[in-house]
């Protein structure tokens, strides 16, 4: 299983973009992948960059995905209030 936490904190450069494509391609349909992000799905294309690669990566990520959206305050913020 691959876990990518906080995906999209900064835009990817070309090397990182190609590395991500290779990793997602290797995982696709064979291994579990868990991705967390604070970004809406539509904004992840801009973070990946280069439209054709972003489309290919996001297609592989979302095609077999079970998407869970959480709403509300950050748990860190809630726990910090106590």
TrEMBL record:
It comes from Parabacteroides distasonis CL09T03C24. It comes from the Bacteria. InterPro entries: IstB_ATP-bd (IPR002611), P-loop_NTPase (IPR027417). Signal peptide: none annotated. Pfam families: IstB_IS21. Residues 1-77 form the IstB-like ATP-binding domain. This is IstB-like ATP-binding domain-containing protein. Gene3D superfamilies: P-loop containing nucleotide triphosphate hydrolases. One of its GO terms (molecular function) is ATP binding.
